[in-house]
Specification:
Order of helices and strands: EHEHEEHHEHEE
Structural class: alpha/beta
CATH architecture: 3-Layer(aba) Sandwich
Strand order of the largest sheet: 1-7-6-2-5-4-3
Radius of gyration: 14 Å
């Protein structure tokens, strides 16, 4: 599903829609160029989960940040693999343990560990942030596994 993102509030609305379908143990994989909106989406998702969005920042240097459960009862683990080059390096971060837990897990730059995500058994939502042919911001959302994200119009 393609979702136009002409304004920040569009990204916030997308995060709220995704949040409505979360039950815990969900895996959200975010792709897109630097500055495309991955961390902004995660901040809005945290807010929708009832977690203080001011806590959310890009974990580019810490690589993994965990936020305690918010008012919706779900904790959020935010992973940024931008600086990781090999799958073995990603696994050394304890990702298997993270995936064994009950948190909603959001991963920026997930491609380096594709095999790990596929083997996790978690419902997966993939979101690619980018631009359409006319240069307008958009997200392409694909939900695999057990759940599907639908637009407000469906």
């Amino acid at each position: 599903m393609k979702v136009p993102l002409p304004r920040l509030r569009s990204t916030k609305a997308l995060a709220a829609r995704v949040c409505r379908g979360l039950r815990g143990r969900d895996l959200i994989l975010l792709s897109g160029d630097l500055g495309a909106g991955k961390t902004t989406f995660t901040r809005y998702l945290a807010e929708a989960l009832g977690i203080d969005p001011a806590w959310v920042s890009s974990p580019s240097f810490t690589l993994v940040q965990r936020y305690p459960p918010g008012s919706k009862g779900l904790a959020l683990t935010h992973v940024d693999l931008y600086r990781i080059e090999r799958p073995g390096d990603a696994e050394s971060l304890g990702l298997e343990e993270i995936l064994a837990g009950g948190d909603v897990v959001v991963v920026e730059w997930p491609r380096v560990a594709d095999d790990l995500w596929a083997a996790s058994g978690r419902p997966i939502i993939e979101i690619e942030f980018g631009r359409d042919a006319a240069g307008r911001r958009e997200a392409v959302v694909e939900a695999g596994g057990k759940r599907e994200v639908r637009s407000e119009d469906e």
